[in-house]
Each structure stands twice: as C-alpha cells, then as structure tokens.
Amino acid sequence: MPHRRSVLLRGLAFSLWPDWGWAQMQPGQDVAAILKERVDVGRETMGLVAAFLDGDRHSITAYGQSGSPDNRPLDGDTVFEIGSITKVFTALLFADMVLRGELAPGDPAAKYLPASVRMPDFEGTPVTLMDLATYTSGLPRMPSNFAPKDWSNPYIDYTPERLYDYLSSHKLAHKPGKHYEYANLGFGLLGHILERRAGKSYEELVVSRICMPLGMDNTRITLSNSMQQRLARGHSAVLAPVANWDFSVLAGAGAFRSTANDLMKFLRMCLNPAEGPVASALQMTLSERRPGAEELDVALGWFISSQFGDELIWKSGGTGGYATFIGYSTKTRRNCIVLSNAADYDPNIALGTHLINAAYPLAKIRREVPVDPAVLAACAGRYEVSPNFILTVHAEGTRLFIQATAQPEFEVFAESETEFFYRVVDAQVSFALSGGGVVSSLTLHQNGKHLPGKRLP
After folding, report:
1. What's the number of CA atoms in the CB half-sphere (13 Å) around residue 349?
2. CA dihedral 87, 297, 20, 78 (to 10 degrees)
3. What's the topology of domain 22-356?
4. Please, what is the end-to-end C-alpha distance for the chain in angstroms?
5. CATH code given to domain 373-455
6. pLDDT in tens, 228-244
7. Domain ranges of the chain
C-alpha cells in the first residue's frame, strides 16, 4: 500500500470451502455469502467485488454499496484505486525497458538522476535499479521529509525537488540488495527514473506499453469522464467517506485506478503468458527472487508465499479509502481479484489468499456490541505499556478512543464490556477490572504479543 502512518506496534498481517478442484468450483453462492458476512456482519467495508478466471471463463461477485453519488451498483466495471498493485506495473515497465535495451538491471539509480542529486550508497555500493524493483534498495519505506499539508491526500505535494533533497542528505543503513524493506519510496523513485529515461510521463509509459497491448482501457491514473462516473467512493477503516489520492513524483508506488474486468485481462496474461513484449517482461519480473518479510519472498513488485504445499504470486494495495488484492497459485492455477472501497487492508489480504487457497484463514469476524457509556467512562485513563509507550484512553458518550505515544488517536469498538478491537489495524485491547468495577490495567494484543499496561495515577 502506498502509505500507512505507523500504528501501535507497526505490523503487516496477512468459509470453509470444500477442497474442490478449480474447474469444479462455482464461486457465486459461496463467495457471495463470504462477501455478505464481511460487509454486513464484520462491517469491514462498504462493498466488495471478487473476480475469478477459469480458463476462458470468468466470474464476478459483488456485494455492498459503491457509495457513489448515484449509488451505482458494484460490478466488474466499477473503478477503484488499486494502490500498491501499481508497483507490479512499475516493475513490469522496468522489465520491458530492460528487454528493449533502454537500461540494465545493474545500472546505478544515480545514472538516471540529475547530476546535482547525491544518490546515497553504502560504503561505495550503489543502489541499483534491480534493488529498487525488489524492495532491497536499503532506502526506508518512506522519506523522512514526507510531511503532507493535507493528510487526506498525502502524496500530491511530494515533488521531485523534495525527493532530490531527501536523497542528497540521506545515509543508507543497509547494504543494497541485502535487506528487505517495503518500498513506497523505492518504487516511487523507480517510476520517476523510468519516465526520465524514456522522456515520457510514468502514466504514458504504463498505458502505452502495458495497458494498450492488453486492452486495459479502464486502468489509468487520470480518470476519463466515464471512469469518474463509475468510481466507487472510498471509505476509511471506520467507514467514513474519504478523499481520493493524487500523486506527484511517487506515482510509481501507488497511483493507478482500475476495474475488476481490466485486472482480469492482466491476470489472464499472468496465467497464460503468450509471446509478446508484455509476457516476456512478466517472466522477467518473476525471475529474480529475494528473501522478504516473515514467510514471504519478493520478486520484482510481486510477493511470493510458499505455505500449505502451494505457491502464491500476489500483490495487495491500499490507499486512504480502498484495499485491493490480485494473485494466483502457480500449482493449482486458482486465482482471484478482490477490490474493496474501504481501508480494510489486512482482512482484504486474508480474503484474497483464502479465496485462492482455503488453507489460508479468513480474518476473524468481530461483532460490535453496544456498551453502557458509564462502563466506557470507567476505562478512561493513561496506561503504561512501557516507559516510552503510553496508551491514553478517553470516552465520548457511546464511543471509546485510544491514542498511543506519538501516534494519532483511533476509535476502538466493543466486543464486550472489557474487550475492544481496532478497525485500522489488526489489534485488540482488553481491560481488567479490580474490586468495585474499577479498571486497573489493560492488555494490548497485536502480532501474537500480549502487552500489559498498568493504569497510571
């Protein structure tokens, strides 16, 4: 996903269908039930579109609301921001330019930047284009001078000049090619380098070299009138309407919008790569693999999960109001695209991987229940998880909010009078009662850890 402010302990998360063969599988009814539960019961999103390919056939299941001004029904032509799925297009464009002899994988990134930019290296080892494409550049996830004037549209004012200032002053903490770190900055920089090398805008390059050959007429950064009319409204994790995102120099990290029908054209090429420039470039994006985070490997843009005797090639995306997923199994050829018009990032990834291989569990459905305001008021206070990490809790009528040290405040939702959950991240908080109904402590549950916090006087 292009950017998420750090939340709590900072983590990445990743029904029961019978084990049918893919050709026997009829997604419709079962997928519809799953989507309905995620929307109506879990309230994870306003709406979902799930798409599948089976040879020459395809199916689309949609549930929920688009939130558009005319409340246009969700379908395969509904437009979503696809966020970091854009990185796959950036990697594919890079591979295409390599195959055309326009640049080389081992070229230093500095070669394609203005002479005035002092691109950082690590003890003389430069950052190469391949390092940027495989999340191993040694650059951080985001530049330290990323300070939006408007967090509702955070990328629009991050210009080439600010990028150049950052690169010229930054020192690498890791040797390029050796250390995985998710790469909004890296892919934004790569996209910028590609447009500088070609003398065309990043969008022009992706459209002319990827979208047009594949007939993807509804995959663009700049929306046509028709795409604008079909755009689903984005929503936050708490289902409040939010603004769409616009990009400047970091467009290669997450600027594209698309539809399920267009992404199925791309997925069909991934599953059945024919001869041609796009297919050859796709094969190159999977040829280099490096260790990623936890149980992931990374290719050029793609993630690779090897669990449950299977291999999944996939990529997720997320912006302020959307969560997206595209992936397939190299062994069973099961595949799916999942598009959501809310920021339910982790549940959407879990849904996508589950729809490809049911051994991947769905995210737990958490049911919100009403709680007496007096009970919520009793939870208010400051809780010390560590000397440098305090959770400040306050109640507003029937709502409860928690703010961690140096982080934004977020609402939490009750599963019971003492158990609460976040929607912005996969984390929960339990309150412990002492005698007389007084709340004496809490426990933060996240990433498999259970961290107690004593209530401060």
Report:
1. 20
2. -10
3. Beta-lactamase (3.40.710)
4. 40
5. 2.40.128
6. 999 999 999 999 999 99
7. 22-356, 373-455
